[in-house]
Design brief:
With 262 residues, this protein is an alpha/beta fold. It has a domain at 136-260: Cytidine Deaminase, domain 2. The protein has helices at residues 51-61, 119-125, 136-139, 142-145, 151-156, 180-193, 212-221, 234-243, and strands spanning 6-14, 19-27, 30-36, 39-46, 72-75, 88-92, 160-165, 171-177, 203-206, 225-228, 246-252, 255-260. It has a six-stranded mixed beta sheet. Strands 4-3-6-5 form a four-stranded mixed beta sheet, with helices on one face. Strand 3 and strand 4 (39-46) form a beta hairpin. Helix 1 (51-61) packs across helix 6, helix 6 packs parallel to helix 7 and helix 7 runs parallel beside helix 8 (234-243). The chain is globular, with a radius of gyration of 19 Å.
Amino acid sequence: MARSRTAKVLVRRWDGEGSQRRPDELIVEEPMEIRLDDHLVTTTMRTPGDDYELAVGFLHTDGHLAGAPVQQVRYCAAGSAVESGFNVVTVETGGQAPIPVARLTTTTSSCGLCGSTSLDELCGRLAPVAADPFPLELLVSMPDRLRDQQGLFDATGAVHAAVAFDRVGRPVVAREDVGRHNAVDKVVGRLLLDQRLPAFELGLFVSGRASFEIVQKAWAAGFGAVVAVSAPTALAVDTARAAGITLVGFVRDGRMNVYSPA
């Protein structure tokens, strides 16, 4: 079922000389409960749409699947999808995935993991990415190449974009969401469902900053490079170097900073 991602509201536009009532288009943000084999994992605030991809991508990048194959994805848990407002998604592995420990707090659209996974834990769970370096000339061009993949941002100015791209700069999967981590999970979920992981031959573009969480999700998916239009955090740089991922930030106007490799 197609869900509306935007909503129209009346606003008063003021320009210093007067005001005028006019419609404005806003992004929709709703909670979505993610369940694994009918066990509650978390509730995240997201933009409706691509919900199956979001659930699968989150469970993969957070390590909950532990290599178990996804057998089915569906709306609802105990009741119907309509009764739950299409805001509960269950990913089924036939009991092959470990029983998850539910998060006690809602995953917000801004914080995502909120530091719940340490770099040491990631190094114990994930092997370094085995990818050839991406040409820097290609990476610096990605914001301009992928600008037309951000239609929701053009309409609302309130979402983040994540785009998987190949080694010649072509977009492979593009997703937008009010949460930057959700946008990445939607991309990863689509690639997993299409059996395209690990994504060694793909890079990941994000329209905001490169947090630790974004880089750890890229590592879990096997991306060879992460391109961010804004800054990384210090922990994101440490994570990219441990993972063997090329990380570039402040990519704009033909310039960028290369943070990884060192």
